[in-house]
């Protein structure tokens, strides 16, 4: 599955997609979900929490392992995707259609420093 061109990517396999209201949606890439295996549980950072880049924005538990998801950019959690609590498996089947959290970034330039889809594709 090719990564969509409408977002940027981190070297730790998260995608970041800007929205019209200025928030950034954060999700996991197809490579990440493949490495994790079948997801069973998702725990998300709480709304209002301030995150530094690299700090966990979610914990994903699969049949293989539990993994912290580092936020690729710093900011304040604006929204969480509550539907993942009941249906974490959608991250396995459609990783680019389901975000984990949306954050209001502290520094807009953090987004532009992430990898383009082409650069990310070459890195995996």
From TrEMBL:
Keywords: Lipoyl. The modification N6-lipoyllysine is found at residue 64. InterPro entries: 2-oxoA_DH_lipoyl-BS, Biotin_lipoyl, GCV_H, GCV_H/Fam206, GCV_H_sub, Single_hybrid_motif. Its cofactor is (R)-lipoate. PROSITE patterns: BIOTINYL_LIPOYL, LIPOYL. Residues 23-104 form the Lipoyl-binding domain. GO terms for biological process: glycine decarboxylation via glycine cleavage system; protein lipoylation. Binds 1 lipoyl cofactor covalently. One of its GO terms (cellular component) is glycine cleavage complex. The glycine cleavage system is composed of four proteins: P, T, L and H. Belongs to the GcvH family. The glycine cleavage system catalyzes the degradation of glycine. The H protein shuttles the methylamine group of glycine from the P protein to the T protein. NCBIfam families: gcvH (TIGR00527), PRK01202.1 (NF002270). This is Glycine cleavage system H protein. The lineage of its organism: Bacteria, Pseudomonadati, Pseudomonadota, Betaproteobacteria, Ferrovales.
């Amino acid at each position: 599955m090719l990564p969509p061109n409408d977002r940027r990517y981190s070297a730790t396999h998260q995608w970041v997609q800007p929205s019209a209201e200025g928030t950034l949606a954060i999700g996991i890439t197809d490579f990440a979900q493949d490495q994790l295996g079948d997801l069973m549980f998702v725990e998300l950072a709480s709304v209002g929490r301030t995150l530094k880049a690299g700090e966990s924005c979610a914990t994903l538990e699969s049949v293989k392992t539990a993994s912290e998801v580092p936020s690729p950019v710093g900011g304040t959690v604006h929204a969480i995707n509550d539907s993942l609590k009941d249906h974490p498996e959608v991250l396995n089947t459609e990783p680019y259609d389901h975000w984990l959290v949306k954050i209001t970034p502290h520094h807009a330039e953090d987004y532009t420093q992430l990898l383009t889809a082409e650069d990310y594709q070459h890195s995996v």
